[in-house]
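Sequence in, structure out.
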Amino acid sequence: MARPMLPDDRRQAIADIVRERGSVRGSELVDLLGVTDETIRRDLSRLEEQGLVRRAHGGAIALTKDETNTAVRLREHAEEKVAIGERAAELVRPGSTIILDSGTTTLCLARALHRVSDLTVVTTAVTNALELVGNPGTTVVMTGGVIRPITYGASGALAAATLHELHVDQAFIAMHSVSIQRGLMYPAFEEVDAKRAMIEAASEVILLADHSKFGREALVRVAPLTAVHRIVTSSGIDPEIAAAIRDRGIDLIIVEPGSRPGHIVAASSLAEAGGED
């Protein structure tokens, strides 16, 4: 008799099957792996929590190219994100109230906010809340909503409803894609309503985006480019795109990645901070 697979090995096998095929039904996995429906459902739930698959009715589908897991995204353009976050922290005034979007670049801002006193931060992201909650003099407010394993950000009607009731000094937002023609864009519907509510709630809207986010498009148009007052980005941005942004009256701040190494929380460290089981 074949030895049963260990749970971790079985989940890795499921993740590999989903990635190779693009999608798979739960009943197929039951037959392939010789386990129960209930075991497969638990495994798929765990894999979705880890940002490795997306559950669908009756099975699972592979993440799109635009939805790579958080651990990978945390390492992309890391030095640029740290520089953007540190520069953005200089824009935050002591005693103010801000909204902080989910995202790896906004997490870098959260890390730099220890320098700002008497601050109230409203955030949709578990990662941001964990980073900020120990700062003396900082009040952290989390919205409600369903936490997406891709971004650790709250989504859905509850998150948007919370934000619709607020007015803040500044909102620091993140986007997957920024197009001069199409505006601010995002690859998934789930967080779009919350992002729109952040924009509406703030007196000043500041987009944090490294240079790779510009000149491309995604599935959903969140808002026109002119919905933001200021953009903080990195020096790799195309000069023509930079000129087009400024032509629209948007303040564009371009930063150079610093020589001092930055630190970004990896997805695996969330477990140590209480973010995972």
